[in-house]
Structures are given as C-alpha cells and as structure tokens.
Design goal:
Elements: H1 2-13, E1 25-29, E2 32-36, H2 47-59, E3 71-74, H3 80-83, E4 88-91
Parallel strand pairs: 3-4
Antiparallel strand pairs: 1-2
Length: about 100
C-alpha cells in the first residue's frame, strides 16, 4: 500500500522524503494488483511490531534532540495494536473511542 499512501501524502503535503511509510506491499500486474502482506500475523501486518523499533530508537535520542512525532491512520481491528504505539491517531469515524 506504500505507493498509494505516498501518492496521497505527496498530493496533500507535497514531496517530503523525511516521511517514512511502513505498510503492506503491493504486487502489480497488467490490469490489477494485490496486497503483499508484511508478516505472518493474523491480520497480515502487526503494525505494532513495525512501529516498536522506531519508538525504541526515539527513546535513545539525547534529551536535546527534537523527537519525531509518530502518527497512525487506521480503520479497523487490525490497527488497535499500533494505536497503542503512536503519539497521534487518526481513525475512521464510528469505530468507538480509544483511550
């Protein structure tokens, strides 16, 4: 999904190589495409496992260094584990309240 996410962000924000996107892959062929899952977890991508190394690296930064802000966009149950690992969460309307 990275190509779709990057295209959307570039359209909305302009090109920015500082944004790192971690997402399922996409296999394309003439006339179609399919998702290439990131790992063997139940949902095909345990997003918390993808985010955790970045969180751990951020914690190792010196106090005088500006820390990056992590944000996450999700729309379903497979996103709950990632929601616990990020600073900002954008969720699809109607999916309840997260605290």
């Amino acid at each position: 999904m990275e190509p779709l996410i990057r295209a959307l962000l570039e359209k909305l924000l302009g090109p920015d190589e500082k944004i790192e996107i971690v997402a399922n892959g996409v296999r394309e062929w003439e006339g179609g495409w399919e998702i290439v899952f990131h790992d063997e977890s139940h949902f095909g991508h345990d997003k918390s496992r993808a985010i955790r190394p970045f969180s751990e690296a951020r914690e190792q930064l010196p106090e005088d260094v500006e820390r990056p802000v992590f944000f996450y966009c999700g729309d379903g149950l497979s996103d709950l584990s990632a929601a616990r690992e990020t600073d900002l969460l954008f969720a699809k309307a109607g999916h309840g309240e997260y605290a």
